[in-house]
Design goal:
mainly alpha; 73% helix
């Protein structure tokens, strides 16, 4: 019998999982800054970010035998995951052109609350008490970092777009938690990123918009997006979804708020307000509560 896609994945330790979470958070923190430096439309930025990532991953995906029967059986879920990811990128990247990096990143990071609500209400899974406490601190921090400091008319559309990005990010993580039990990280990433890239490219083409501009500097930025936040962030989180619940990975994403805000200050000169700083502090406090001594399930206890 042919080996399952998952047979190619090693068995990580609890410390390796925690370290991977940290690397993923640092990697995704670079996304907003790289996006702000590219003078292109949101759809084009998202397309090239994902298309280049697929090109990078293809050599590894080809080396591993694909179980096409599994692909056909889960084609609907794969398409839905790709659609969610495409819409997440589209709305969030657009929000970055309408409001500050700190505000946009904070609002798009409310997806842990949405994932937790879905898990509790629809999935009927009990959540640990520390997730409620940490989630409450996160929600308070998000409120202070965004609503208190950004009730200006020109920010409202940016906040709305960022919230839509959060909704689709939550859906993407939930789809990933289901599908990562069936596909290797590489195959899952190539399949879903390809769906997203095709959808985004089609949207750009249907609106008769150009895929440029192009220059060596812009290509370098696209390549950096593919390597850092996409491979080192999203793809690493996809690998972690095999071993860690989507609720806890979604919460770990919130570390991006502090990292992106700091980079925006250093690179773009976007000085955070006092409300932003207090809000980020509360968010990080909530993260500490939810992640400290987190007993990640041991991989061997998971069904193959």
């Amino acid at each position: 019998m042919p080996k399952s896609d998952l047979a190619f994945e090693t068995t990580p330790t609890s410390w390796a999982l925690k370290g991977a979470l940290g690397v993923g958070v640092l990697s995704v923190s670079s996304a907003a800054i790289l996006i702000k430096l590219v003078p292109a439309q949101p759809t084009a930025i998202a397309f090239w970010r994902l298309a280049l990532t697929v090109i990078i991953l293809l050599p590894w995906a080809i080396r591993q035998p694909m179980r096409w029967a599994t692909v056909r059986k889960n084609i609907g879920w794969l398409l839905l995951s790709g659609i969610f990811l495409a819409l997440h990128f589209l709305f969030w990247i657009r929000s970055l052109s309408l409001t500050s990096v700190a505000v946009s990143t904070a609002v798009v990071s409310v997806h842990p609350v949405l994932v937790a609500l879905w898990t509790r209400l629809i999935g009927r899974r009990a959540l640990r008490r520390r997730l409620y406490i940490g989630g409450a601190l996160v929600f308070l921090g998000l409120t202070i970092a965004t609503l208190v400091s950004s009730l200006q008319l020109h920010d409202l559309w940016g906040i709305f777009d960022a919230f839509l990005g959060a909704v689709f990010a939550g859906g993407y993580l939930l789809m990933g938690q289901h599908l990562r039990q069936k596909f290797s990280t590489t195959h899952y990433a190539v399949l879903v990123y390809s769906v997203s890239a095709i959808l985004l490219g089609s949207m750009q083409w249907a609106q008769f918009h150009q895929m440029g501009p192009f220059s060596p500097n812009i290509w370098a930025l696209y390549a950096a997006m593919a390597v850092l936040p996409t491979l080192g962030g999203h793809t690493l989180f996809n690998w972690l979804l095999r071993y860690i619940p989507a609720t806890e990975i979604s919460l770990a994403f919130l570390g991006e708020i502090a990292g992106a805000s700091l980079l925006a200050w250093l690179v773009l000169g976007q000085v955070p307000t006092g409300a932003n700083i207090i809000g980020v502090g509360l968010i990080l406090g909530g993260l500490v509560i939810t992640q400290w001594h987190s007993p990640f399930p041991h991989p061997r206890s998971l069904s193959e």
